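User: Hello, can you help with two protein structures?

Assistant: Certainly.
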Amino acid sequence: MIRTLLLCVVIVSSNAHAKTIPSTNFKSVQEFIDRMVNEHSFSKRELNIIFSTVELVVPEKPSAIKKPKKEAKLVPKKKPISWDKYRGLFVNNNRIQDGIKFWKSHHNTIQKAEKEYSIPSEIIVAVLGIETNYGQTKGKHPTFEALTKRSFGNYRRKKFYKDELESFLLMVRENSIPPLSIKGSYAGAMGYPQFISSSYRYYAVDFNLDGKIDLFSNPIDSIGSIANYFSKHYWQDGADIATQIELKREHESLAKRSINKPKKVAKFWRDKGIDMSNTIADDAKIAFILLEQDEASNNETWLTFWNFYVLTRYNHDNRYAMAVHQLANKIKQGFNSLK
């Protein structure tokens, strides 16, 4: 049986500096459409209609005349924003105060999510604060267009985006959402919690029990879905997240700039001569991360636990996880002071 999509019309502007044509003119797009028809029983006609709304740049034909090879220029890798600047974007008074207001407005729902999924209320609120400023900035980019261009245009990680495009089409059909009506981030994240398509399908929940899942206009479903996401990634109820630590020079290399999954227990590191708080149990798995500041002398070293790693499953960046942790603590302090 052919299953249909809800269609709506959009106007797509062409790139003024390059020749573009409808994506349906590309063989790779037609192969993708055929697969969606064969594997998921989509209507080929409807898929052709929606894919024709997205225009892709026509690849330039290689010149018939071979040009002499030029010496490759080394392009310096762009340095990521420092931790102190990153923190300033999210752990600030506006986000804290807006988080307290959001928590007050949705107190019963947040409390219910904490009880049902064992995820701290302040973590749920902080994630919403960092992702979309509590629903105020959910993104203006047409999601279907963004995913199509990243799947078939001149972008990296094409397989990832093709998988997300497949999940997106399944998601909108399952939830009876017109595929061309959705807007989100430039890379395809959507709604209050900025879920990508596969996360929407696997982790989003109907938390207000109205028979549908809505992360675009419904903060209640969004709150429950964030809690479910962390629960499904094995959040440890009541466990610590991170604590700052000073490492001796011979141990500094243990602190990783990249995500460092806790694998070895505290006793292992104590036996290696690392001094840490007596409150950390010997059998607690820990890791060490480095957060770089503009001034290297101000770099921060942190001892992290499993729950910190779980935060990086939402966004694979140590700075993100630490911003959630610190914003959550600030919001909790402010919320508790109102009681």
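That covers the first. Now for the second protein you mentioned:
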Amino acid sequence: MSISSKIIIVLPVLNEIENIRPLLDGIRQHLGDRDYTICLVDDGSRDGTPEFIRDAMTRPGHRLHLIERRKTHHGSQRGSALFAAMRWGLCEGGGSIFVEMDGDLSHRPEELASGLALIEKGSADVVIASKYLPGSKVTNRPIGRRLVSIICNLSVRATISPRVTDYSNGYRFYTRDAAALVGQAKIRYGSPIYLTEVMAIWISHGMRIAEFPTHYVGRNEGLSKLRVIDLVKASIGVVEIAYRLHFGRL
């Protein structure tokens, strides 16, 4: 794959005015002269995030595209935001490589080169920055939240496939072919469980999956932000996805 391949950064944002400038600066610094566009999906921020982005888009040489939406469902719609930006990158953005990141600086732009290198040398179709590989590091995340994350991730590995160590981290790199598979699928989840559904689609189609150690930085992730109902819904979703995966319904 040519080093000149067009990169689409898929970036959901919601009330990230404190983080958006350093994040965009970091991406710009670490991608340099590469051919890339950052597709941001804002789900109704009220802190000035979309206004900041629109202002940045008036400046010469910007590499931004903004999709503005209004949430129509309770809870996080991060999955549907990822899907919308990915579809734009496929249909209009001319993307060859796709990178998914969070808008809160939990995913470090310094690691962009590591994920892109694995895709570009052709050793994988999908690359995940994994919190659970030797050499990985997690900071600013309470121990209780870490334990919940580990237990949930182990449960998903047992249900879906042990070949992936981190189903929940949204720092992902993938080829246009991998994106096209998702774009053609009938996606059922717009919540964060979307990450597991998409991974199951890739596994079912024999996509080559690689991982590399990451430094994950927690942002406002106390246990108080977890709701039992969300965990129950996620558990039901994982079981439903596993059924479709193992019985050839994906």
